[in-house]
Specification:
Elements: H1 9-18, H2 23-41, E1 44-45, H3 49-64, E2 76-80, H4 107-114, E3 118-123, H5 157-165, E4 170-175, H6 181-187, E5 190-193, E6 209-214, H7 217-227, E7 256-259, H8 271-286, E8 290-293, H9 300-319, H10 323-326, H11 331-338, H12 345-366, E9 371-375, H13 404-408, E10 413-420, E11 426-432, H14 438-451
Parallel strand pairs: 2-3, 2-4, 7-8, 7-9
Antiparallel strand pairs: 1-3, 4-6, 5-6, 5-10, 9-11, 10-11
Length: 461
């Protein structure tokens, strides 16, 4: 019972099928582990042990009859709190939100429930998802399981921390500029930002995706079988494709990989991060891939234009709040958003237009290669109490230079652990594919799991 929370979804399903384990004993073990760790991590919101055990009992009855409901029957999962679950309020990470229960499941929640997954509850995020941090005006401070003095990143802060801490095998986050990849990198787990529209979501928005966050590529691939099923509510979703998500073998000989170590703007890459990413690239080269340098294609003007648009959009929401509710928003967010108050229509339009500029630049730069490797983040995890590495609302996005362009270009991009700093903090390798080649990105990430040295033990197992 002390180790059931460490089992992968693949292992759990095999054990359920053979009757070696039951969903009830696994769910109890995971909930007990969460109870032990949560006072230190603070990764969950609306954790519901009673409902989870009821779901596990129903799953157990199905397995006893050899009639599993779906591909994830009985497997514990958490869902980021901005992805609606019927009956659960959506605070969006901020104390300023009126807590109104969601009327229905969002598409990803609906798919997980239909597949029989045991939904443990929700995971935390910062105010409005606008920080790569575990800092929130609504939730207690979420911390990194590898080092409790460090930040897990965000905005899928709780999902990454929960995965690294062993709160069951499957976790779901969202990403609009790096929000599954950055916390996954800083917490040493795997995460996929799929192609825009691959996983239906509601409400849809340019660049916004949901993505699996797991300890292994295989578990993420298993989630993709379920999450990529169609839902008409997402007007931006891709036509459904019956992709063989678990076929993860990929020959490397002759594969052309672009290696980009300079994002063109933002924080400089830490030497330990650079060494780890370049070491991964050398391992692929030794296995038969062709690795060539890729020059930066982003500019600070692109980033600042997008920043202006996001500030204006956020200020419209925040300024519409009553003074009492606005006072509850994290002050850093208010100060950042206030920078959009005086922008002209021309400035906002030009900022919005940078999405298209980034899209064209990213697609053009990646075209000569099968895949592109970059650091996921230029630095390792930073202090837990900070809203961002710079702690400066004038320049809050200096750490997202490697992740942001692939939201705008709609390309799939994943992060997978490629080493640790001398202080023991995880380092992420970002793997980028062509639009719609989500399976290819999973295959290359799985190949790296097989090439890399043995991973360190998980921090709270």
């Amino acid at each position: 019972m002390d180790t059931l929370h460490t089992l992968s979804a693949i292992e759990l399903l095999a054990a359920y099928s053979s009757k070696a384990l039951s969903p009830v004993e696994v769910t109890r073990a995971v909930l007990q582990h969460i109870e032990r760790c949560e006072p230190s991590i603070h990764a969950t919101y609306a954790l519901d042990p009673q409902a989870a055990l009821a779901q596990a009992e129903a799953s157990q009855a199905r397995w006893l009859k050899n009639e599993p409901q779906g591909a994830l029957d009985g497997v514990p999962v958490t869902i980021k709190e901005n992805i609606a679950s019927k009956g659960v309020p959506i605070p969006l990470g901020t104390a300023a939100t009126d807590l109104v229960p969601a009327e229905r499941d969002a598409p990803p929640t609906a798919r997980l429930r239909e597949a029989g997954a045991v939904i443990l509850g929700k995971t935390t995020m910062p105010d409005y998802g606008m920080l790569s941090s575990g800092l929130s005006s609504f939730h207690p401070l979420t911390r990194n399981p590898w080092d409790l003095s460090k930040n897990p990143g965000g905005s899928s802060a709780g999902a990454a921390a929960a995965s690294a801490a062993g709160y069951g095998p499957l976790h779901l986050g969202t990403d609009i500029g790096g929000s599954v990849r950055l916390p996954a990198a800083w917490c040493g787990i795997f995460a996929l930002k799929p192609s825009l529209g691959r996983i239906p979501i509601y409400p849809p928005y340019a660049g916004r995706v949901a993505g699996p966050m797991t300890r292994s590529v295989q578990d993420a691939a298993l989630m993709m079988r379920v999450l990529s099923l169609p839902d008409a509510r997402d007007s931006m979703s891709l036509p459904y494709q019956p992709i063989s998500w678990l076929e993860l073998a990929r020959p490397l000989r002759g594969l052309k990989i672009g290696l980009m170590m300079d994002a063109g703007w933002g924080l400089p890459v830490d030497p330990e991060v650079a060494d780890a990413v370049q070491g991964a690239a050398k391992a692929f080269e030794a296995a038969g891939a062709i690795v060539e340098p890729l020059a930066p294609f982003m500019t600070r003007g692109m980033a600042e234009g997008m920043d202006q648009f996001w500030r204006c959009r956020s200020w419209m929401d925040i300024s519409a709040l009553s003074p009492e509710r606005r006072a509850k928003v994290l002050p850093f967010i208010v100060e950042w958003a206030r920078g959009g108050a005086g922008l002209s229509g021309e400035q906002v339009f030009k900022g919005f237009s940078q999405m298209g500029v980034m899209r064209d630049a990213a697609v053009t730069a990646c075209r000569p290669f099968d895949f592109v490797f970059t650091p996921t983040s230029p630095i390792a995890a930073y202090a837990a109490e900070l809203p961002c590495p710079t702690n400066d609302p004038a320049q809050p996005f200096e750490h997202i230079a490697f992740t942001l362009p692939y939201n705008m270009s709609e390309q799939p991009a994943a992060t997978v652990n490629c080493g640790h700093t001398s202080a023991g903090l995880p380092i992420g390798l970002q793997i980028v594919g062509h639009r719609h080649d989500d399976l290819g990105v999973l295959q290359i990430a799985r190949t790296w799991e097989q090439l890399r040295p043995a991973s360190r033990p998980w921090p709270m197992d």
